[in-house]
Amino acid sequence: MDFLIDLALRFITQFQSPALAFLIGGMALAAFGSKLQIPDAIYKFCVFMLLMRIGINGGMAIKEADLVDMLLPVVMTISLGIAIVSIGSLALARLPGIKTEDGIATSGLFGAVSASTLAAAMALMEEKDLAYEAWAPALYPFMDIPALVLAIVLANLYLSKTKETKTKVDILSIIKDSLRSSALSALLLGMALGLLANVDKVFGSFYDPLFRGLLSILMLAMGIEAYTRINELRRVAHWYVIYGALAPIFHGLMGFGLGVIAHHMIGLSPGGVVILAILAASSSDVSGPPTIRAAIPSANPSTYIGASTSIGTPVAIAICIPLFIALAEAMF
User: Fold this and answer.
1) Is residue 10 part of a domain?
2) How far is the CA of 234 from the CAs of 8, 43, 267, 292, 328, in angstroms?
3) What is the pTM of this model?
4) Which residue in 10, 68, 109, 202 has its CB near the most CB atoms, within 10 A?
């Protein structure tokens, strides 16, 4: 009982975080009908800057890291992405009122990763002095790409069975499209620069100081976007609302559990455990939707974008981040 009370108190204190405050503030403004808008160009610039910061920091850390220590977390992230899509596809396909390809597309976004959620988690962890391996955010593509590839393959296999003419699934093309997405391109570029170039000065004088300010703008924009997209879910099965609310917590617990195993096996830090949980809890809101839209055109965007952006991302940021930080602080 004392552990649960301590966990609840730690969870509540996380809501003093500026990142969460800006997210909730954006949703409140939209709810009251405010005309405030964050231009799309500024939103994309903030995402780019945050991913470059994460990538450069990860690349610099990989130079100093023992790559053997990264092997188990890499395997775990790949497994999580595949498991989330597999479980989600099976679960959603069995619910009434849900088209199979819509359910697969939705599970694909929830198996993929949200760059903004990851950035928010890192900012809050730094505020709480919860240390993590600098290479941990570099696990992002190892979950993101397998999840999107699996979802697209499953959807195409299903659609080919329902038609007389079978369609060929080009897995290599899917991987190339995922790597070319704006989010992964920025992250991988940052990692390459941090790993191969001497970027310490530009990182310390430009990217790092701007991190929290740009994140606050991004959270405000995401809060406004999340509330305005709620109307999309009113036109589809309510099961998407339930899935969007519960899946991030369930997926995050899967990631946290594997992180605890990695903690005992290779000494993964408590912060590293939280990063793994947040990667699993997040759902793609930047790079995933256009990839899914292009590869599974028959899927209804209102279902997978609505469930991910309107429900999944706010739950991951407002509930999962403080929950798993509190759980790590209470356990370790």
Assistant:
1) no
2) 32, 26, 46, 21, 36
3) 0.82
4) 109
8-state DSSP, 136: G
d(CA 192, CA 37): 34
**Which residue range(s) make up the domain with 312?**
38-331
Does any domain span residue 33?
no
For residue range 105-151, what is the model confidence (pLDDT) as tens digits? 999 999 998 888 888 888 888 888 888 887 888 888 889 888 988 98
d(CA 262, CA 247): 23
Query: Is 330 in contact with 12 (CB distance < 8 Å)?
Result: no
Count how many domains the chain has. Answer: 1
Distance between CA 129 and CA 133 in Å, rounded? Answer: 13
In a domain, 61, yes or no: yes
pLDDT digits (tens, 9 = 90+) for 143-188: 988 898 898 888 888 877 776 445 566 667 767 776 777 777 887 8
